[in-house]
Write a structure and sequence with these properties.
single chain; mainly alpha; 4 helices; 48% helix
């Protein structure tokens, strides 16, 4: 499941669309937008997958299905995909210095998603996103210390 909607991305990155729509090349390789519809859909899926990874790491059941939480998540994913649309046209925050902090756009997005989930975990849960009952201790390295007696 991908969060976000391609039409909302198109509304926010209208300059890169054809009359408000992302378009794939025709059979002859003509007429597509940069980025193409297929590329934007792939980015929505990729960013959604990375977000699900960050959410699962914090114990959330994924994909999130709570309506209020999805509204916030959709807006986040769409805004990050808009950043990728700009980057594909050598503009925006990722075009300035080969990415933010000299890392690739997708790695920067992963870092931002990890931080966003950690900062908003209580709110996400408060908006109805469920957490797994098997989460406790999942991210804590555990080992037994054996002592010679």
């Amino acid at each position: 499941m991908a969060y976000g909607d391609i039409d909302n991305v198109a509304a926010l990155a209208r300059v890169w669309t054809d009359n408000g729509q992302f378009v794939d090349d025709d059979l002859y390789g003509n007429g597509g937008t940069n980025p193409s519809k297929t590329q934007v859909e792939a980015w929505l899926a990729q960013v959604s997958g990375v977000l699900d990874l960050a959410l699962a790491t914090q114990g959330f059941d994924v994909p999130v299905t709570a309506t209020l939480a999805i509204a916030a998540i959709d807006a986040l994913v769409e805004s990050l995909v808009v950043d990728l649309c700009h980057a594909s046209n050598s503009t925006g925050r990722f075009a300035v210095t080969n990415g933010v902090d000299n890392i690739s756009p997708l790695l920067q997005i992963r870092k931002e998603l990890d931080e966003w989930v950690m900062l908003n975990a209580v709110g996400i849960e408060g908006m109805g996103a469920s957490k797994s009952t098997t989460y406790v201790g999942r991210n804590v390295a555990s080992f037994d210390v054996f002592r010679a007696e």
